[in-house]
Write a structure and sequence with these properties.
The chain has 246 residues and is α/β, with parallel strands linked by helices. It has 2 domains: 38 residues, no CATH class; 179 residues, Vaccinia Virus protein VP39 (Rossmann fold), CATH 3.40.50. It is 41% helix and 18% strand. It is built from 9 helices and 7 strands. Strand 4, helix 8 and strand 5 form a beta-alpha-beta unit. Helix 1 packs across helix 3. The protein is globular. The relative contact order is 0.11.
């Protein structure tokens, strides 16, 4: 179990017994600080108020409000989907439930190594490795037209605590997404992927620029200030020669 998963488990225990103060007393210093910050986080509180599965929903909402990544009728793949907050946002934004009869109905497919609880309007592949060719084949079978308009990725490997190693592991996952896009991302499609800032970030950016004329670095306001996470937004996919950044 990763440190993040352990911390979330602690948080759920505290919420279950409605005794966060008592739970805090029983934890180590690191756990105490993490949980105290988590319980005071305004985005955690907002997520509960709006019935989002976790605070990360607000990162995607913020990015989409500004950059218009999701549109009604789009087919979306949510990589690293658990617990499903980004899929919740995608279902709303692409009209996957057909709530608005005046716009096209979209499709949302979430994939994760972990179990993802069912969500109305989304299809989930739980316990599935996004880098496995078997998973890619399943994705192609499930997509309405075998191609997606948008690939979202908020996924991250279990942290080792070694910054450079963790950075490299996440960059490699992003490379896997880019390789996968050759099979399942339609022309002019979009990738939004999280990475941890570090020396390989420019290499990833250059690889994206080989297939996307528009690549932008985004740090959402809803991302914690002390977090190294950043996002690359790459638009207008094409499988051709390297193009210049706009």
């Amino acid at each position: 179990m990763s440190r993040y998963q352990r911390m979330m488990s602690i948080t759920l225990q505290c919420q279950r017994f409605h005794n966060a103060a008592g739970c805090l007393k029983s934890k180590t210093g690191t756990e105490h600080r993490w949980l105290e910050r988590h319980l005071k986080d305004p985005f955690v509180k907002a997520a509960k108020q709006h019935n989002y599965r976790c605070r990360s929903a607000f990162k995607l909402l913020e990015i989409d409000d500004k950059h218009k990544v999701l549109r009604p009728g789009f087919s979306v793949i949510d990589c690293g989907a658990a617990p499903g907050a980004w899929s919740q946002v995608a279902v709303q934004r692409v009209n996957a439930l057909g709530t608005d009869p005046n716009v096209p109905v979209g499709f949302v497919l979430g994939v994760d190594l972990l179990h993802i609880s069912p969500l109305k309007g989304a299809v989930f592949l739980s316990n599935a490795d996004i880098t496995d060719p078997v998973t890619l084949k399943k994705i192609q079978e499930l997509l309405p037209t075998e191609k997606a308009d948008v690939i979202l990725s908020d996924m991250a490997p279990n942290a080792t605590g070694i910054r450079e190693l963790d950075h490299q592991k996440l960059i490699n996952l992003c490379f896997s997404l880019l390789d996968m896009s050759k099979s399942i991302l339609r022309p002019s499609g979009t990738i939004l992927c999280k990475f941890w800032d570090g020396r390989e970030a420019r290499l990833l950016q250059n690889r994206l620029l080989e297939h996307f004329p528009y690549v932008r670095t985004i740090k959402p306001q809803s991302s914690r200030k002390d977090s190294a996470e950043v996002y690359y937004l790459a638009k207008l996919y094409h499988d051709g020669v390297k193009c210049q950044k706009h």
